[in-house]
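User: My notes are a mess, but here's the protein and copper (II) ion's SMILES. Can you give me a structure?
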Amino acid sequence: MMIFGDRARRAGSALRALGLSFGMGLAATAAHAQEAVASAAASPAASGSPSAAGSYVPMAPTPGVGMPVNGGLGFQPQYTENGQYALWFHDALLMPLIVLICLFVLLLLIWVVIRYRKARNPVASKTSHNTAIEIVWTLLPVLILVGIAIPSINLLSKQFKPAPENALTIKVTGNQWFWTYTYPDNGGFDVNSYMLNQPGQPKINADVREVGSKPWDGPAQLEVDNRMVVPVNEPIRIQTIGSDVIHAFAVPSLWFKLDAVPGRINEKVLTITREGVYYGQCSELCGARHGYMPIAVEVVSRDKFNAWVQTHSGGVIDHQPKPAAAPAAPAAAASAAPAASTAASAAPSASTAPGA
Ligand SMILES: [Cu+2]
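Assistant: No problem, the inputs look usable. Here's the predicted complex:
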């Protein structure tokens, strides 16, 4: 399935190639007319392929969890181990330390200004050295910095820890201006994710519903039509790439931010410890609609994730013995891929391929 990513990246219209090659044989294609792309990712409301056994209803987000709150200060509550560690580092160590140091310096300044002003202290001291004080003001900062460096380097190493072998891989492609989530371990289907339109506002994404029209819709300008669905408490190998310009995949409540750069793959492991919906945004200025390509990560149980996978044409459950018929779908897709990506109009060749 990595071949897909490479080919699509080289092709000028990455999404078109992916959409056509995966979209063949798919009865219900959710059309995003905005980019004239036939999406292989069936929207939650749309029916999957007839053979798909799964069923899935999107989760309603918990207010205040995984999203910004009105008047909020500081970081959002964290739902990954790294995030909790980093939040502790910031809240328990860095903030108190910097507040204490600032107060200490401020008090010293005030004391000097008042006590040693010209009226109070007409003859200034000629003292230029004080060994005891010099040792203290050298050693103390060194000790403080070492004390900060230990948890800081620890956090860095945690964040750069590679994903374990059996991690679930999800490829995140940043496009102008939406996200594509590819699931190579689950048959290689794609999910295109567009921001919902705002009621009463000019439409940003044609043919995408308005926020508030479904019971599970989350906050305005953060909710999307198709979320990135992942299993809870499992390491996920996130690979980011840009199809046009640099984007950045960032979810504040998961302590996760990774640039999506054209021509290279960035990788980072993500393990989310609580079911729920977590919202983020593209965090690299990527063009006119940079502010309208939010991220919604829905974290569900393994069973629910498997059911969600099966709602996609060609969806294959990972980590489990595959049914005899299942491998046919990705194999057919792979064999049709060269035709789909090389031919300028791939639709005829794709339509002649055996149905999934
Ligand atoms: Cu972007």
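The longest helix spans residues 81-115.
User: Great, I'll file this with my notes.
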